[in-house]
Amino acid sequence: MTTKSPGIPPTRYRVGRRGFLGLMGLGAAAIGAPTLLAACGNGGGAVGSAGGGGSVSAGVLPNYLPIEYIAPDFPSVNGSTAGYSSIPGDLVKAFSAPPGSGGTFTAMTPLWGTIPPTEGNQYYDAVNGALGSTLRFQISDGNTYGDKLAAVLASADDVPDWVSIPTWNVPPRFTEAVEGLFEDLTPYLSGANVEKYKNLANIPTDVWKFCVFNDKLYALPFPGEVINNAIFYRRDVLEGLGITEQPTDAQGLADLAKELTSPGDQRWGCEDLWTAATMMFAVPEKWTQDDAGNLVHRIETEQYRAALEWQVELYASGAVHPDAVADKTEESKQRFESGESLIATDGVGGWHEALSRQLQSNPGYDQQAFAPIAADGGTPVLYKGSPANIFSFLKKNEDPARIEELLAVADFLAAPFGTEEYHLVNFGVEGVHYETDGDGLPVPTDLAATELQPTYTFLVDPPVVNTKVQYPGFVEDYCTWMADAAQYLADPLFYGMQISEPSRFAALDAPFPDLEKDIARGRKSMADMDEAVETWRTSGGDELRQFYQDILDAQ
Amino acid sequence: MTHGSSQDVRGRGDADDPALATVAPTAASAAAGTAAPALATAGDAVVVDEGSGRAGAVQPRRKVSWRARLARDRSLILMTMPAVLLLAVFAYIPIAGNVVAWQDYSPFLGIADSQWVGWYNFQRLFVNDAFWHAVGNTLLITAFQLVFFFPVPIVMALLLNSVMTPRVRTTIQSIVYLPHFFSWVIVVTVFQQLFGGAGFVAQRLADLGYDGFDLMTDPDTFLVLITMQSVWKDAGWGMIIFLAALSTVDPALYEAAVVDGANRWRRIWHVTLPALRPVIILLLILRLGDALTVGFEQLILQRGAVGVDASEVLDTFVYYQGVINGDWSFAAAAGLLKGVVSLVLVLGANKLAHLFGEAGVYKRA
């Protein structure tokens, strides 16, 4: 199970004492977000054919009206994340007056960090002031957010007005909760209705499509990036060892990891590379089609088996850090950053987080991502990441004015880079949370560390751009790497569709993450995998295939 | 006096004894799978001696009327009320939630609206290989730890009791029960740092030319590993109860034994161990009731390291089925079955204790 942190704090994977759920959620996230969502069925199969099937009627989606305040220094290529290398001197004021009308709302968000005070917090006071509405945050530890969420959602009275739900924390049977608990936003945002909210209208259609449950628009998105994961290496250490050549195939990567391993120096080649293996071997996240057009599940594919066999060899070579062999994933970042292991897969958001932790004490720290590698050295295939990583939902409310006020607030929070609103939400108040340095870059104050933690952004966020200008060279490294990688992107089957599988299929996939680990570590063989796949088929897998085939046919 | 000290503990069999009133439900709730505070159990056990003065009154009490007993014990009953209330709210009332085992329960529909499915979940349970595998693992771990973990605190207490200098004794005592207060994450991490593939031992061995030592990822020795961890963490803590029992032994008995010519070994056999016997039996019964509970965090933390085959036990099975897969009813059925079997084990063990003439956990008034 590899850490994966798409665009948001990867520290959430630092699994604490009670973080098992997060960890498991991850396991599923590695298979692909739809798995998780799919794991939530509707008890009696009561979902209408249109609902469970993930199909979206034409009138449901909001119109897309892109706005751009400043042209990015590193433009998007094939959907890659655009980047800015500086902060513009004069920011655009997107809202002439606060959009809210004085209401007070509760909001629940996860946080992977120290929870800030919610009372007497100048950041909240400033943002709430600019919003014209008061959001009172109930912030919970991101590592255990799923547990908390399951409890909160099971008791309707405790559900806050606005709930943030990471895609990997979507609890089982969630579709039952959506209809009962949350407001259907279709009447407010569908089609031309969204044009009232210009920043929400700036969110691409694919992202909105992912927010549709049972053919109704329920969620507001925290958009994701097209590439969620990367294979990172420590360029500083590798160059110190005289290695500059990049691996071009799976064997090359395994050889490199082996070459770097030197237990006597407390140095190992890599962390667990399962995510890397699935990327190199282009393992589909859930379903793919064979040449005859039949649906083939990920676990039945040649790619999946090849990736597993590659892992077996990697583990057998001794290149994997022993603590990673012991599945201590929570410390994998620590091992990588301290140089005990030199190659690791992580979510792309983990990159700047590592820099923020390391650059201060180790200015020479240099983490880079390998260009995409195809297992056989040919042309790589990368499956696109989910269009949204985190959703937020509005609690049902009799009064449409309350919903409209929240949507106006959401519109404010979705203001893109280059606006005063974005600057306020992301950097706080000048002189209080940051000082502007000679290059016009915001330098966070000590108060920012305690008060300014990402909270509003987890409710709704503009389309992703990279604005981490504070780390020298990072935006360029990041955007050029992703622009290059984006040329290999492919749409997975059922891309961006919100499909709810019947709950009787919920446990079907459950044995595989464990089995993947067992096989990699040589505790089980590929014969056990054959057996598990056979069990999967007979205990519902073939039915599930038919379920998806029907959806495919209906398209 | 040996006899007298076992009488002390027998006093606990008295249903009216406030100390016991707390001990028994604690055992029951532990059996039902609810985590009862271990501290309370230990504390109650130590308090026992205070009730011993009344132990002689057991026989005539039967004739006193119910009303008179109520009047007499009023203040004692009042004192137990907070504990009873806590148990009712946090143990007994939630037990009713077990009805979801007969439903296709969804937390979003609630118990009232979820569909009733009869014994379906239990049927699934009985044909589920993974479940029986988990049961097998659980029993294996219990049996192994009964032999290799349970006696350790007793031996430690005997050893420590023979240390005469009070200062040395308290120092050792503090050191050995300190790990009890570490969380499992820390314990597992410490073991990883020591015995893992990149740990201290592996490094020293590698220096000497032996490569590949890694105790933490070997499923075959996992049983030994988790027992080592448990001993390190909890043996010192378990010792306290035995030390408390030992402290009640009248030194005059030892002196008398010495006068009779008993050597050190004989004194342990004829004086010390008989004094400990009731406590050992009591804890053994409690342990049997807990036979299907072999640790949750410890195992879940090392699940990835050794694989599911070695580490899946009933509690982790319930967690993964219920919380992770959302199959709450199936998990509840498994949990309920575990509770019922645990209850039978406690009752059986208690009965056995009576047959051997011991007080056990409780007995009829």
Description:
With 555 residues, chain A is α/β, with parallel strands linked by helices. Chain A folds into two domains: 10-32 and 228-383 and 492-554, Periplasmic binding protein-like II (D-Maltodextrin-Binding Protein, domain 2), CATH 3.40.190.10; 62-226 and 387-469, 3-Layer(aba) Sandwich (D-Maltodextrin-Binding Protein, domain 2), CATH 3.40.190.10. Chain A is built from 21 helices and 19 strands. The longest helix of chain A has 29 residues, at 526-554. Mean pLDDT of chain A is 85; it is low at 1-51. Chain B is an all-alpha fold and 365 residues long. Chain B has helices at residues 2-10, 18-31, 38-47, 58-61, 66-95, 110-113, 120-126, 129-148, 151-161, 166-177, 184-195, 200-207, 222-247, 251-259, 264-289, 297-301, 303-306, 308-311, 314-324, 328-355, and strands at residues 103-104, 115-116. Chain B has a two-stranded antiparallel sheet with strand order 1-2. Residues 1-58 of chain B have low confidence and may be disordered. Chains A and B meet through helix 1, helix 5, helix 6, helix 13 and helix 20 of A and helix 11, helix 12, helix 17 and helix 19 of B. Chain A: It comes from Isoptericola halotolerans.
What best-fitting shape of chain B do the alpha-carbon axes yield?
flat
CATH architecture of chain B: Orthogonal Bundle
Order of helices and strands of chain B: HHHHHEHEHHHHHHHHHHHHHH
- Radius of gyration of chain A equals 23 Å
Counting DSSP H or I runs of 4 or more residues, the number of helices of chain B is 20
**Tally of DSSP β-strands of chain B:** 2
The CATH architecture category of the largest domain in chain A equals: 3-Layer(aba) Sandwich
Fraction of helical residues of chain A = 25-40%
Main location (chain B): membrane
Transmembrane segments (chain B): 76-95, 139-160, 181-202, 235-256, 328-347
Keywords (chain B): Cell membrane, Membrane, Transmembrane, Transmembrane helix, Transport
Subcellular location (chain B): Cell membrane
